[in-house]
Amino acid sequence: MESFGLTGLLIALLIFLIWFWKSLYVIKEWERGVVLRLGRMLPHAKPAGLRLVFWPIETLYRMSLRIETLDVPPQDIITRDNVSVKVNAVCYFRIVDANLALSQVQNYLYATSQKAQTTIRSIVGQFELDEILAEREKVNAKLQIILDQDTEPWGIKVSKVEVKQVDIPEQMQRAIARQAEAERERRAKIIHAAGEFEASSKLAEAAGVLETQPAAIQLRYLQTLTEIGAEQNTTIVFPLPIDLLNAWVKPRLTSGQ
Predict the structure, then answer these.
(1) 164 in a domain, yes or no?
(2) Do 22 and 100 sit in the same domain of this protein?
(3) Whole-model pTM over 0.70
(4) What is the pLDDT of residue 237?
(5) Cα–Cα separations (whole angstroms), residue 79 to 84, 89, 196
């Protein structure tokens, strides 16, 4: 009887240890434990730490709250101006409600991936090609808002959506290159014309000053000679006033007549 009682005690202790081992959970800092009691979900998930559940009455599921990175594969999209492009993106999201992420969707990662693909196809198609290339922040913001609204009932928060690459056809690339070259030439011509206009305005102002001060042109002659002499060349420039030539030419014309 004593040996039977000792054996029963050891069996009971072994059963208790097995039950205790299956009922003891260590939840990490970035996890939450969703508990089902006889198939019914408890309203609050268990926080991080050492937690005890009553197995097999209760079952605990660990849900990670860390940000997950989802790589959206390239999607064939036709833009609003009828250009066929391939767009791939990356999505950053995390679980904010562990109970909803477990109860409302079977596989939240797969569901978010499919939702991201359909959202990119529908939203990017509303923009023109130039807007997608030049205003990518606007496209990213709209994608993030729409995707976050759609995944909110699943307890998921989409923090950011980034369009990584936009692949356009080769013919369209050549057309864009020609357009950019023409734009640069247009700006160069405008800048050159503006410079000519400014220079002509300054020359007109200088002519007005020289007209009011006749001695200023002689000083300008002397300054020019100084600049030429500083370069140590053999060219000699002798300024001859136009008035002197006119005074010499007019008598000859009069005598010729």
Answers:
(1) yes
(2) no
(3) no
(4) 60
(5) 7, 16, 42
